[in-house]
Amino acid sequence: MSLIKKDRLAASSCGADVKLSVEGAFRIVEDMVTELMGDQHIDGVTCMREYGGMWVFVRNRIEMPQPLNWMDEYTATSYISSFSKIRLYIDTVLQKADGSIALKSRLELCAVDLETGKIRKSESVGVGEKTPAEEPVFEIAYTKEKPVRGDLIDGITVRSADIDYCHHTNNVAYVRYFINQISVDDLIEHPVKAIEVQYAAQTHEGDKLCIYRCSSENEAYLIEKDGSKVVSCIITR
Fold first, then answer.
1. I need a surface site. Which of 8, 12, 43, 108 has the fewest CB within 10 A?
2. Which residues contact 195 (CB under 8 A, 6 or more apart)?
3. Has this prediction a pTM greater than 0.85?
4. Interhelix angle for 22-39 vs 171-179, to 10°?
């Protein structure tokens, strides 16, 4: 069962070039995914209230082969492409009015227990035989690269506006931390074509985070808390 929505690109989802920004892309994907899961009664709020668990992002890869401009009409489609004993994969695609793809995303999630923090089986949080999975409509593969810490380039304190309903730092906030390491002029001249974010741990309000530039064949960044990895990203432009 897919979630399909038609919309026009809002100004709040655009960057300085009046095109879909990286942060805007992640927000659209997150909203589509959470609404899809809500329709199927496997969303994060249900997971917390009924199963004592919490969905967390593991990896999200977004590819943007062509720009989407402010006020452009698009159709967004999200669907479960597969799931396993401990993983759930949701694909999202944004198509322009002419049918061409402006964005494609594959998000990997898992559920963890609220009390122990241990990974839960998918079936224990409502994902099972009756969960509808569809054949993927596009190819997208996660990178095998694991960014290695390089030079320290920034420090961040997590603030209240960065926190989601699970009381940990929202996934999109990390994307903003990464993109803030790139200048506006650089983003306009060399727009992001693909970005993969790999999540390793949770952080909370007041936590102090360190951002490192990484040694990589692509552009890569790493965020740590107290010397331990929290999240990393790999960018292709």
1. 12
2. 22, 61, 62, 175, 178, 233, 234, 235, 236
3. yes
4. 170
User: Is 65 strand, coil or helix?
Assistant: coil
The pLDDT of residue 99? 96
pLDDT along the chain (237 residues), means of 10: 96 98 98 96 93 95 98 98 96 97 98 94 92 91 90 97 92 97 97 97 97 89 97 96
Dig out the tokens for 164 from the structure: 């989601």
Cβ 62 vs Cβ 194: under 8 Å:
yes
Cβ atoms within 10 Å of 164's Cβ, excluding its own:
13
Residue 85 CB neighbour total at 10 angstroms: 10
Instruction: Identify the helix (H) or strand (E) that includes residue 233.
Output: strand 228-236
60: amino acid identity, one letter:
N
Strand 194-199 relative to strand 101-113, pairing: unpaired
3-state helix, strand, coil in the chain (%, to 5): 20, 40, 35
**Contact partners, residue 102, CB within 8 Å, separation at least 6:** 20, 64, 65, 66, 67, 68, 72, 74, 94, 95, 96
Confidence at residue 103, expressed as pLDDT on a 0 to 100 scale: 98
pLDDT number for residue 165: 85
Cβ-proximal residues to 79 (8 Å cutoff; 6+ apart), any chain:
1, 2, 3, 36, 90, 91, 132, 133, 134
CA distance readout (Å), 32 to 3, 29, 42: 7, 5, 14
